[in-house]
Structure formats: C-alpha cells, structure tokens
Design goal:
Length: 414
C-alpha cells in the first residue's frame, strides 16, 4: 500500500519502539500495488562502493561468493526506500482510531473470508504450539491484511540501501546479512524475497534476522517459505516466535470487561493484580460473568471507566513482543475476538478531545468531501488529509485556520 493511513498508523503505533518484528516499515507496510520508479535500482557510485566493502564482511561472515552474487543480481540502490524512511511521521493514535484503522467491520469481514480456508491449518498450528489460531489470524490481518499485502520491494535492495544510508546502518547490515543467508540456504530465491520498504517479509512481516531465528517449515516441504501464497509457514513461524517469547499455551490474551461505577483503577500494564483483587473491585466480563483466572492481569481503559476496557493477561505482553504498542496488542486481541465469532465492542468511546464522537467525525469527513474539501475515506480517523481539508474550509470561510475539528465546525457544515 502506498503509505496509506493504515501503514502510517501502524508506524505510529510502533512508535519509538524497538519492535523486533515489523520494525519501522511495519505491518502492511507492503509495497504499493505497482512499484514506482523510485523502487527500481538506480545508479549510485557511493552505494556501489559500500556494497563492495560490505562484500568482504559478508564473505568473512560465511556468505559464499556465489550466494553474494546471486543475492545482489538485479538489486541496487532504491531511492524510494530512503524517502519512506525519512517521511515516517510519528503521530500518536488513540485506541479508538487504531481499531477503526486496523479492525473495522470491513477488516473483520475480510478476515472471516480469508481465514475460512485456513481454519484447519490454524487449528493444527494451535494444537502443535498452544498459540490461539484466532490470535495468529489477527496478526496476519493487521500485518498484511490477511496476506493481501505482502510487500513487493526486493529485500536485498531495501536492506542494503538502508544499511548504506547509515542512520540505522548496523541494524540494517544485520538484516542484509540475514537476507543473504536466506539466499544461501535456498529457502527462497532472491527475486521472490520481497517485503516492505524496511525489509519485513511474508504473511506476518518478519524481519530477516527474526526469520533466521524463528521461522519454521510447518508444511514440511523442506523450505521455510513465508512468501508463498500459502500462509502456513508464516503463521507457524509467528506462533513459534510467540512461544519462544513466553506464550502460555491454551490461555487467553485477555477479555473486554466492564468496570464498576466509580472505578478508580489502577489501570495500565504496570498495574498487574490478582484476578481475585479485580473481582473484589467489581470488574466483570463484558459478556457477563466472573473473570476467569489465568494469572495476574492488568486493565487498559483508554476512555475511562465508562468506555471500552480490557483485562490483559500475560499473553497480552507476549503479543507486544511482536510490536510493543499497547494499541497494537488491543488491535490484535479485538480482531482475534471478532474472528472467533465475538461481536463488536459493548461500549463506545465518548467524544474525543475535539468534542466529537467517531460517528460525528465520520459525518464531518463526509460533509467536507461533499462540500468540495476532499478527506478521502470517511473512517472517522483524522489524518493529514482531513486536517488539510479543514484548513481549506476554514480559510474559505474566513475562520481562524487551525485545522482542528469542533462541534461548531460540524454545525456549520450541516
Ligand atoms: Ca515449508
């Protein structure tokens, strides 16, 4: 996807984090459907000199001359990768916005149709690893929209460009070396080894070093193939990653809960308490009934006691080892619940800091677009485009140009 809002958002969600997984280019950061010229190798003498020097280090590290030559054949400096890297904006998203972007009803219905044919595979992986098939499917969904956006940028070109550029040179040189090892072991061919602009690959966007350490051949065809149309190895590799990071087999990640009137906390992942304490405080499952005891848990209540709230067990923290943003984890948990047959959230988020609810934000976007100020898809999430549309509208009406929405602005558009 041409850095869509979804991608930008996930980048933001990854934040400053050292996601060992889909690092910056992250999730769904897939390539645009057709790669532009900025993603074709371009002449760059400085890059070529860097590759020549790197070749010595790679050979010292055990890459054969043949593997190196095969790996770099047709690859090269990609200016588009540098552009993407420099244009990452970190904007914080609320949990509500995040869910609207990665787990909308449309995403859920795409997920149901994409997971139906692999239910058996997910069950097999769950039986073998103890990792919930719904959680794996949710990661698949958030990372690559259920395998529909694997990314088409050649990984050797992307990682060598970023290693040469040097801002995180050491990190990307390690990724490049790991990618060359994949060429050497022939798990796939260099031309099939594509991914996001930052080198995250396959159905669940593994960085090459993560691939080296955690990828598995679950299909049993002798190759750890996370690039094929068949997501089996990708999903099983992610399960293996979660197991190795402490996933507790057969246990849930968490549940949506209702907090009692006047609940004062403590909330946040640092405030883990026994289930007995939370029960005594009046916390209940949103679906009704007492909280199941799967060990100590924390509460995430981004909209206060009356809004949606979640009860988070240890497995939630394991999901965050994939991407350390709490919103990411909630997105995965919520999507997993929906894919498992659960309904939408039982409570709604209140108005945001501009005083508008999500429905009103969608209405504002629709009305701006209808008035000739294009906001793109009316998803209720304000990005650069909505902000620009608001500015243009304000300018045209002689209002102070703030780019910030308000109930008054919506009233003017009605
Ligand atoms: Ca395989």
């Amino acid at each position: 996807m041409a850095i869509s809002r979804r991608t930008a958002l996930i980048l933001a969600a990854a934040g400053a984090a050292q996601a060992c997984m889909p690092i910056p280019g992250g999730p769904g950061a897939g390539a645009p459907d057709a790669l532009g010229p900025e993603f074709r190798p371009q002449a760059n003498a400085d890059y070529d000199a860097w590759v020549a020097a790197f070749r010595t280090r790679a050979l010292d590290a055990g890459i054969t001359a043949d593997s190196f030559a095969r790996g770099f054949e047709g690859q090269g400096f990609l200016p588009g990768v540098i552009e993407r890297d420099r244009n990452q904006t970190e904007f914080r998203r609320t949990t509500e916005d995040y869910l609207a972007l990665v787990a909308s009803d449309e995403d859920v219905s795409l997920g149901r149709s994409r997971t139906a044919p692999v239910r058996g595979t997910l069950a097999d992986i769950e039986a073998a690893t103890g990792v919930s098939g719904d959680v794996l499917a949710a990661i698949w969904g958030v990372e690559t929209r259920f395998g529909t956006r694997l990314g088409q940028i050649p990984v050797i070109s992307a990682t060598s460009t970023l290693a040469w550029e040097g801002r995180r040179g050491r990190f990307f040189e390690a990724q490049l070396l790991a990618a060359l090892r994949i060429v050497q072991t022939r798990d796939t061919t260099p031309d099939r080894m594509t991914g996001s602009w930052a080198g995250a690959m396959g159905h669940t966007q593994l960085m090459p070093t993560v691939y080296q350490e955690y990828a598995v051949d679950f299909r049993g065809d002798g190759r750890r193939d996370i690039w094929s149309d068949d997501p089996t190895d990708g999903l099983a590799s992610t399960a293996n990653y979660l197991v190795r990071h402490g996933w507790q087999g057969g246990r849930p990640w968490g549940f949506e809960v209702h907090l009692p009137e006047g609940f004062t906390g403590p909330t946040g992942r640092d405030n883990r308490r026994s289930v007995g304490e939370w029960r005594a405080a009046g916390v209940r499952l949103a679906s009704g009934g007492a909280l199941p005891d799967h060990g100590p848990a924390a509460i995430h209540a981004p909209g206060g006691a009356r809004g949606p709230a979640w009860f988070l067990y240890r497995n939630f923290d394991v999901i965050l080892r994939y991407n350390p943003s709490t919103n990411y984890g909630i997105g995965i948990g919520y999507m997993a619940t929906r894919l498992g047959g659960g309904g939408p959230l039982s409570r709604s988020f209140g108005p945001d800091e501009t005083g508008l609810t999500q429905d009103q934000r969608r209405e504002l976007q629709r009305r701006l677009t209808a008035a000739g100020y294009d906001t793109g898809t009316p998803d209720g999430v304000f990005g650069r485009r909505t902000e620009a549309a608001i500015r243009d509208f304000q300018r045209a009406r002689g209002l102070p140009v703030t780019g910030v929405a308000s109930p008054d602005l919506l009233a003017m558009l009605r």
